[in-house]
Design goal:
Helices cover 46% and strands 13% of the residues. It is built from 19 helices and 13 strands. The strands form two sheets. The chain has an eight-stranded mixed sheet, with helices on both faces. Strands 10-9-11-12-13 form a five-stranded parallel sheet, sandwiched between helices. The chain is of the alpha/beta class. Helix 19 links the parallel strand 12 and strand 13. Its EC number is 1.1.1.132. Pathway: Glycan biosynthesis; alginate biosynthesis. It comes from Streptomyces camelliae. InterPro entries: 6-PGluconate_DH-like_C_sf, GDPman_DH, NAD(P)-bd_dom_sf, UDP-Glc/GDP-Man, UDP-Glc/GDP-Man_DH_C, UDP-Glc/GDP-Man_DH_C_sf, UDP-Glc/GDP-Man_DH_dimer, UDP-Glc/GDP-Man_DH_N. Keywords: Alginate biosynthesis, NAD, Oxidoreductase.
Length: 441
């Protein structure tokens, strides 16, 4: 394919060189003439493993050249990769100035008839917040081209997953390829561009592709901060943090796995809250600051409050709650977030009915019974004997369980309002119905 790459920084330079080495005819574009000259001389404008020899080779064979002329680049390509920077503004917001400028230039070049035949596809590789492409860049492109994105012009958001220092290796062996396509033909063009590369390919809506890069980077930052905070605490306690993490990382069932990484309701139970509090207290006693770990419980509490806020938004007073124990298949109520949710709603004066097939007041014993008598002493009058009793009572139903008896009985159509805390199996269909509210989806 004939490809133009806008921006010859790390992402653009590596993308251009690697695509050229795959057999594509690539032209790099940059406003910095020094970068353009370096590439045309077969030299890399960035310091990166393997990039120097790669650029030298593809420039020598004629597969890669560079220019400062946008019109020339558009004329000589069918796909344009936009790899310009999106730095932070002083207030932390995303700077889209360079993205807007390049999008306008590409649109103008296309409108001037620089593109000879066929549909041009614009592929945004720059990191941008969800909504940026459809709400900001596509209108700029359409205005300048005088055509419709997804019809006359292809548009794709294709985030990169390149780490500086290993970016060439990452390009040829990506963890995944994400294609946020405006239409299937746009996605097909990018599929052809990367044909032959390994790894799973995800063809998703444009905003999903934009969001994925932020999910990745936020998690990477969180992992580093998590490991460093643990290291600081364990050093203060006289423990070798690397020995701890060797064992931690060996657990591929719960730790390094998909476990606990699906948005849902708040966590609770007899272990997580207690142990987090103990670890934070130990750090405080050792005079070690751990801002990430010390805010996990407050983050959890805020997430629980989102459920209360959804009930308040519904504007109705009669509430049904399905689920009470902290985990399905148990009657353990200790630090259950659903008990906390019931307590908050009851305290705000809501008329509450609760059903949990595993919870019967007459069967609660020991610490479990003591906990509920302290936290929700009026539980006996709130518990219902059946799903139907709760549905008959409720104007708003909070669903905190996937009990098949509950799922099969939940009505559609807006009455009662459904507040989904677990992402119901049919949540995707319910999202289009009136009266459905998902907690975090």
């Amino acid at each position: 394919m004939r490809v133009s790459v806008f921006g010859l920084g790390y992402v653009g330079c590596v993308s251009a060189a690697c695509l050229a080495s795959m057999g594509h005819e690539v032209i790099g574009v940059d406003v910095n003439q020094v970068k353009v000259d370096l590439v045309n001389d077969g030299k890399a404008p960035v310091v990166e493993e393997r990039i120097g020899e790669l650029i030298a080779e593809v420039v020598r064979t004629g597969a890669l050249r560079a220019t400062g002329d946008v019109r020339e680049a558009i004329m000589d390509s069918e796909v344009s990769l936009v790899c310009v920077g999106t730095p932070s503004e002083p207030n932390g917001s995303l700077c889209t100035t360079y993205l807007e400028r390049v999008t306008e230039q590409i649109g103008t070049a296309l409108a001037e008839g620089a593109k000879q035949g066929g549909r041009h596809t614009v592929v945004f590789r720059s990191t941008m917040l969800p909504g940026t492409c459809l709400n900001l860049l596509v209108p700029i492109l359409e205005k300048n081209v005088g055509g419709t994105a997804g019809v006359e012009i292809g548009v794709v958001v294709n985030p990169e997953f390149l780490r500086e220092g290993t970016s060439v290796r990452d390009f040829f062996d990506p963890p995944k390829t994400v294609i946020g396509e405006l239409d299937p033909a746009s996605g097909d063009a990018v599929m052809a561009l990367y044909d032959g590369l390994p790894g799973e390919v995800f063809r998703v809506p444009v905003p999903t592709a934009e969001a994925i890069k932020y999910a990745d980077n936020a998690f990477h930052g969180l992992k580093i901060g998590f490991a460093n905070e643990l290291g600081a605490v364990y050093q203060a306690l006289g423990v070798d943090s690397h020995q701890v993490m060797d064992v931690f990382l060996a657990d591929r069932k719960l730790n390094i796995s998909p476990a606990y990484l699906r948005p849902g309701f708040a966590f609770g139970g007899s272990c997580l809250p207690k142990d987090l509090r103990s670890l934070v207290h130990a750090a405080q006693r050792a005079d070690v600051s751990i801002p990430i770990l010390s805010h996990v419980l407050s983050s959890n509490s805020d997430h629980l409050q989102r459920a209360v806020d959804l009930v308040e938004r519904a504007g109705k007073r009669q509430v049904g709650l399905f689920g009470l124990s902290f985990k399905p298949g148990t009657d353990d109520l200790r630090e259950s977030p659903l008990v906390e949710l019931a307590e908050r709603l009851f305290g705000k004066g809501y008329d509450l009915k609760i059903y949990d097939a595993n919870v019967s007041l007459s069967r609660l014993l020991g610490a479990n019974r003591e906990y509920i008598e302290n936290r929700l002493p009026h539980l006996a009058q709130l518990l219902a004997d059946s799903v139907g009793e709760v549905l008959q009572h409720a104007e708003v139903c909070l669903v905190g369980t996937r009990d098949p008896a509950v799922l099969s009985a939940l009505p559609h159509g807006g009455e009662p309002v459904i507040v989904d805390l677990v992402r119901l199996p049919d949540a995707e269909a319910r999202r289009t119905e009136p009266g459905y509210m998902g907690l975090a989806w």
